[in-house]
């Protein structure tokens, strides 16, 4: 079954530092991968998605992610963190075989220090 | 503005009572989902519906029920059979195809059992 794993339940960075949030997927078939962001007491909103084509995907708010088949990874990065980036981030997959049900990682809480 | 509306935002329930969470969308999406969110566990799928008058159980359907009589509406009932219902509940609908379509979320309903 398709699943995604997010490494690290919490990531802490200083304002202006590089943000790196890790996501690995398990599948022999390239999946369709998404990153969502959730601010406190709100629903999730899409940051970016990979379906086919270019492996480097750019999203909103300066975030980007690179699909690496050799590493089964889809890590989320941002060159310079802002205080407003503090939120919960979820990696998700819409499996490419069998069930097309969106499944989510456990989430990574990004903490940004001034 | 198009979107998903969940109500109520906060709900308190006594043990043994059934409660119904409302989810309405005006995005003209066919597929809709209910997720439960608990700290550190990510989003877990309760029920989903791909089309009107059809719905399927997710990973944690026990103690919950749904209906899909209209395209716009997908209410979730938390029954007294749900042993630990205190959680944050998220409703979502999907744009486009099963593999590439992003999810649109409501702002959530927080249920507390007293």
Descriptive notes:
With 114 residues, chain A is an all-beta fold. Chain A is 0% helix and 55% strand. Chain A contains no helices and eleven strands. Chain A has strands at 3-7, 10-14, 19-26, 32-38, 44-50, 56-58, 64-68, 73-78, 87-94, 102-104, 108-113. Chain A starts with a strand and ends with a strand. With 114 residues, chain B is mainly β. Chain B is built from no helices and eleven strands. The termini of chain B are far apart. The A-B interface holds A 9, 32, 34, 36, 41-46, 49, 51, 90, 92, 94-96, 100-107 and B 4, 6, 33, 35, 40-43, 45, 48, 58, 90, 92, 94, 98-103, 105-108, 110.
List the defining traits of the structure above.
heterodimer; A: 114 residues; mainly beta; 6-stranded mixed β-sheet; 5-stranded antiparallel β-sheet; 55% strand; globular; B: 114 residues; 7-stranded mixed β-sheet; 4-stranded antiparallel β-sheet; 50% strand
What is the topology?
The complex is a heterodimer of chains A (114) and B (114).
Chain A: E1 3-7, E2 10-14, E3 19-26, E4 32-38, E5 44-50, E6 56-58, E7 64-68, E8 73-78, E9 87-94, E10 102-104, E11 108-113
Parallel strand pairs in A: 2-11
Antiparallel strand pairs in A: 1-3, 3-8, 4-5, 4-9, 6-7, 7-8, 9-10, 9-11
Chain B: E1 4-7, E2 10-13, E3 19-25, E4 31-37, E5 43-51, E6 54-57, E7 64-66, E8 76-78, E9 87-94, E10 103-105, E11 109-113
Parallel strand pairs in B: 2-11
Antiparallel strand pairs in B: 1-3, 3-8, 4-5, 4-9, 5-6, 7-8, 9-10, 9-11
Q: Globular, elongated, flat, extended or rod-shaped: what is the shape of chain A?
A: globular
What is the overall shape of chain B? globular
Number of strands of chain B: 11
Q: Biggest interface, which chains?
A: A-B, 25 and 25 residues
User: What is the percentage of strand-forming residues of chain B?
Assistant: over 45%
Mean pLDDT of chain B: 93
Number of helices of chain B: 0
């Amino acid at each position: 079954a398709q699943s995604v794993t997010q490494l690290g339940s919490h990531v802490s960075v200083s304002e202006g530092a590089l943000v790196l949030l890790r996501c690995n997927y398990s599948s022999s078939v390239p999946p369709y991968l998404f990153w969502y962001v959730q601010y406190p007491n709100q629903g999730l909103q899409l940051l970016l998605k990979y379906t086919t084509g270019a492996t480097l995907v750019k999203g909103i708010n300066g975030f980007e992610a690179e699909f690496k088949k050799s590493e089964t990874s889809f890590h989320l990065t941002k060159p310079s963190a802002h205080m407003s980036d503090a939120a919960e981030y979820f990696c998700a997959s819409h499996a490419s075989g069998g069930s097309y049900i969106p499944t989510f990682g456990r989430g990574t809480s990004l903490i940004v220090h001034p | 503005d198009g979107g998903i509306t969940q109500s109520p935002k906060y709900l308190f329930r006594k043990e043994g009572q059934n409660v119904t969470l409302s989810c309405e969308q005006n995005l003209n999406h066919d597929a809709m989902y209910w997720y439960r969110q608990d700290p550190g566990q990510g989003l877990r799928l309760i029920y989903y519906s791909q089309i009107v008058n059809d719905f399927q159980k997710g990973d944690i359907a026990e103690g919950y029920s749904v209906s899909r009589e209209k395209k716009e509406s997908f209410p979730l009932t938390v029954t007294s059979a749900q042993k630990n219902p205190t959680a944050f509940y998220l409703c979502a609908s999907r744009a486009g195809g099963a593999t590439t379509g992003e999810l649109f979320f409501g702002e959530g309903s927080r249920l507390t059992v007293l």
